[in-house]
């Protein structure tokens, strides 16, 4: 089975986002960027499937600026076979990303696509679903575990109140949740080996799809600052404050 893993380069999850003074977006100048954490989990899943002999080839694809190549290299150092970089300086919306990924999946004749549940920069959480609809493939979203079952894949999904197991006929799509696995660190020898692995270069224009934005960002603001807490003397004072000051009980 050929496995395709789309990965996005995003603001590192440890970095505190700074909003641009004109409120047009988050300032990404000179800040650490990394692979979207959910996509690291997807890469780990694909590499584990290759090690188990269920994946015959693993391909990583990223749509983003020139530096997205570094993110692809990280995935190659973790064990993916080869990369495809679709270079653009625009932060394309999920529908545009899904249309491009559909085209990549078809030309690569992929059998299985593993995306992150969401990209932590914009929190859309919609690309996997849109891609499944465009390809007319089944999707198991928010996967907690994945197991091959003959021609099908059984996916245990995280749902409100528990876990739900679904069977997907191949070709299929899965989106990863945090508990699926623990992504490995790339070892130095594997980082060196990854430098020799091929990365194919493309642009969104190569796919002939409409990538025009459907959304207009009106403004981006920081969340309200948290006010300092206070210490209460005893439970009675706590109840009094909750009742008479906060008005929550
Ligand atoms: P989103 O729907 O934007 O929250 O993203 C969900 C998932 O779609 C991510 O975890 C990635 O697997 C994939 N994805 C989103 N944007 C890109 C991109 N620019 N390049 C590659 N994959 C992407």
> What's the SSE pattern?
EEEHEHEHEHEEEEHEH
**How many β strands by DSSP?**
11
Radius of gyration: 21 Å
Output the number of helix runs. Answer: 6
Mean pLDDT: 96
Task: Give your account of this protein's structure.
This protein is α/β, with parallel strands linked by helices and 249 residues long. It has a single domain (2-244), classed as 3-Layer(aba) Sandwich (Rossmann fold). 27% of the residues lie in helices and 27% in strands. It has six helices and eleven strands. The strands form two sheets. It has a nine-stranded mixed sheet with strand order 9-8-7-10-6-1-4-5-11, with helices on both faces. Helix 2 packs across helix 5 (188-194). The radius of gyration is 21 Å and the shape is globular. It starts with a strand and ends in a 5-residue tail after the last helix. The model has no long low-confidence stretch (mean pLDDT 96). The chain binds adenosine monophosphate. Residues 6-8, 36, 38-39, 62-64, 92, 94, 97, 115-116, 118-119, 122, 124-128 line the site of adenosine monophosphate (AMP). Adenosine monophosphate is lined by residues 6-8, 36, 38-39, 62-64, 92, 94, 97, 115-116, 118-119, 122, 124-128.
Q: Layout of SSEs?
A:
Elements: E1 2-6, E2 9-11, E3 33-35, H1 37-51, E4 57-64, H2 68-78, E5 82-87, H3 94-108, E6 112-116, H4 127-135, E7 139-149, E8 152-159, E9 162-169, E10 172-176, H5 188-194, E11 199-202, H6 235-244
Parallel strand pairs: 1-4, 1-6, 4-5, 5-11, 6-10, 7-10
Antiparallel strand pairs: 2-3, 7-8, 8-9
Helix pairs in contact: 2-5, 3-4
Bound molecules: adenosine monophosphate.
């Amino acid at each position: 089975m050929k496995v395709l893993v789309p990965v996005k380069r995003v603001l590192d999850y440890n970095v505190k986002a700074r909003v641009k003074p004109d409120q047009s977006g988050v300032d990404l100048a000179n800040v650490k960027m990394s692979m979207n954490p959910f996509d690291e989990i997807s890469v780990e899943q694909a590499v584990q499937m290759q090690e188990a002999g269920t994946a015959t080839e693993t391909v990583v694809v990223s749509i983003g600026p020139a530096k997205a190549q570094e993110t692809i290299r990280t995935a190659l150092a973790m064990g993916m076979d080869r990369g495809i970089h679709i270079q653009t300086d625009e932060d394309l919306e999920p529908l545009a990303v899904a249309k491009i990924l559909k085209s990549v999946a078809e030309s690569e004749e992929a059998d299985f696509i593993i995306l992150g549940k969401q990209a932590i920069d914009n929190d859309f959480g919609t690309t996997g679903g849109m891609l499944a609809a465009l390809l007319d493939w089944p999707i198991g979203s928010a996967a907690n575990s994945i197991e091959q079952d003959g021609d099908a894949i059984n996916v245990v999904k995280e749902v409100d109140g528990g876990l739900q197991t679904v069977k997907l006929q191949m070709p299929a799509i899965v989106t990863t949740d945090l508990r699926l696995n623990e992504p490995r660190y790339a070892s130095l020898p594997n980082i060196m080996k990854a430098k020799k692995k091929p990365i194919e270069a493309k642009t969104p224009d190569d796919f002939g799809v409409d990538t025009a934005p459907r959304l207009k960002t009106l403004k981006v603001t920081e969340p309200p600052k948290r006010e300092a807490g206070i210490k209460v003397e005893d439970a009675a004072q706590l109840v009094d404050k909750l009742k008479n000051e906060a008005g929550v009980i």
